[in-house]
Design a protein that fits this description.
Elements (H helix, E strand, L loop, with lengths): L6 H10 L5 E3 L21 E4 L3 H14 L3 E4 L16 E4 L6 E5 L4 E4 L5 H9 L3 E2 L11 H7 L6 H4 L6 E7 L5 E5 L11 H5 L8 E8 L1 E2 L3 E9 L2 H14 L5 E6 H11 L10 E9 L2 H18 L6 E3 L2 H12 L1 H7 L4 E7 L5 H15 L5 E4 L4 E7 L5 H21 L15 H6 L3 H14 L12
Parallel strand pairs: 2-4, 3-4
Antiparallel strand pairs: 1-2, 5-6, 6-10, 7-11, 8-9, 8-10, 12-14, 12-15, 13-14, 16-18, 17-18
Length: 464
């Protein structure tokens, strides 16, 4: 189906870009054959580092004409193999496209190239007193990667996900055409919303070469509460009640003792008051000190007096904030460091069904005799569940992992959940999308793919 790349193709790619940004065969570093999780691996025929949209356009025109597959990559921090070139061809690396194109304070937008890192966006806008709210766990991800998988994060419960903060996109289509979607406007009812279709499409429909992001004034204060409970069940049951009875928090995370201890040991840091079975971590932000203090006071009283929390600890110093959020951010790395191999189940459920699902997860862990740690954004129902190999023999682990995924995704679907909350489908989770999506829905997605990419060259064998 696809053309194999030859020396003539390599010479053309070098002509479009430069000699020192085109790599083939032994020149390709192993880091570019997998993503952060590493469960999907494949070697591209050529790795090309582009520096501007003109190079992307020319490469796509050539790839379209010659029918060469193209897989787009940013920082490679994904967890489902979306940036892995499973069909060979060109690995199109956008990580050098790092220009801040425009900060428009009047329209409260920032326009950037796709290779700009999330942490650099925060720094750039916050020194201007502005705020970009999406807060995925991996701050070294590129904004292009965040847009590709519609990344969520810990502030999604109040501020929404990446899609809610993208005003406009400039994208290159599979045939090399450059089109503009959306812009700086706040409202847009001008035909089909192709911008939002591209967001979350994981590089299968078009290549983002610039993005215009929505900004707001930076909240002047952020305060957190660490609320311990006697059992995990109590903590989980409180979360939806708190959101009904009180103002929506900026973030609402669930911890349990084993996850905390694992992260503390891995990082060499301790969270204050860290000896209880389960916790909610609530954060509130705002620009009005009095209103924020009232929010904290009300939340504390509700938790202790109405919901049966053991206490409500105010995270009121920089050291406390740093330790708690660092330990929370270290959960994934700690789990990775604790095992020989792992894979992830990234499900999202209605908040009311989280407890039933986590109890079921414990049953699966017990029945399979496999360690299955987890953590989650309980405020938006997104759970991250990890199936760990530890000392299980490889063939047995592969069998158990498949069975575990089958059981967990099936249960999530029965409880009104979906296959992915924020990491996407990529290559690794395609079978579960197929199993748990209505056939007409799937056919529509496949038809959309064919319209955007009739030759099937953009990130083939991903999503659908």
């Amino acid at each position: 189906m696809y053309k194999k790349i030859n020396e003539k193709d390599l010479e053309y790619l070098r002509k479009i870009t430069s000699q020192d940004r085109v790599f083939s065969k032994d020149e390709i570093e192993s880091d570019y054959t997998h993503d952060e999780l590493g469960t999907v691996k494949a070697i591209p025929e050529v790795h090309v580092k582009v520096i501007n949209k003109e190079e992307v356009i020319e490469i796509m025109k050539y790839a379209h004409k010659e029918v060469i597959p193209v897989t787009v990559r940013g920082a490679g921090t994904g967890l489902v193999g979306a940036c892995v070139p499973v069909s060979g061809g060109i690995l199109l690396d956008l990580s050098k496209m790092t220009q801040f194109i425009e900060l428009d304070k009047e329209n409260l937008t920032l326009t950037v190239e796709p290779g700009v890192l999330l942490l650099d966006i925060y720094e750039y806008v916050e020194k201007e007193g502005l705020f970009y709210a999406p807060d995925p766990g991996e701050k070294t991800a590129t904004i292009g990667g965040n847009i590709a998988c519609n990344a969520g994060g810990m502030r999604a419960v109040k501020y929404g996900v990446t899609r809610d903060w993208v005003r406009g996109l400039e994208v290159v289509l599979a045939n090399g055409d450059l089109i503009h979607l959306g812009g700086k406007v706040v409202k847009n009812s001008t035909g089909y919303d192709l911008k939002d279709l591209i967001i979350g499409s994981e590089g299968t429909l078009a290549i983002v070469v610039s993005a215009t992001l929505k900004l707001i004034p930076k909240p002047k204060r952020l305060t957190s509460l660490l609320v311990p409970f006697e059992t995990l069940e109590q903590a989980i049951e409180v979360a939806p009640k708190l959101m009904v009875d009180h103002v929506i928090p900026t973030g609402l995370e669930i911890f349990e003792k084993t996850s905390i201890k694992s992260s503390e040991e891995f990082l060499g840091k301790k969270i204050p008051n860290g000896n209880y079975e389960a916790y909610l971590l609530l954060s509130y932000d705002g620009s009005n000190d009095q209103a924020l203090e009232e929010d904290i006071e009300i939340a504390s009283k509700l938790c202790v007096e109405k919901y049966g929390a053991i206490d409500a600890f105010l995270v009121d110093t920089e050291e406390r904030k740093g330790n708690i959020w660092t330990v929370r951010g270290g959960f994934l790395e700690a789990i990775k460091a604790s095992t020989t191999e792992m894979d992830e189940c990234d499900v999202v459920l209605p908040r009311s069904n989280i407890l039933e699902f986590l109890n079921y997860t414990k049953e699966v862990s017990k029945n399979l005799k496999m360690r299955i740690p987890y953590f989650g954004h309980i405020g938006d129902g997104n759970l991250h569940i990890y199936l760990c190999k530890d000392d299980i023999e490889q063939k047995k682990y592969d069998e158990l992992k498949q069975k575990g995924f089958d059981l967990l995704y099936k249960k999530a679907y029965e409880l009104g959940g979906l296959v992915s909350g924020e990491h996407g489908i990529g290559y690794a989770k395609r079978e579960y999308l197929e199993k748990m999506t209505e056939k007409p829905h799937l056919e529509l997605m496949k038809s959309i793919k064919k319209v955007f990419d009739p030759k099937g060259i953009l990130n083939p064998n991903k999503v659908v």
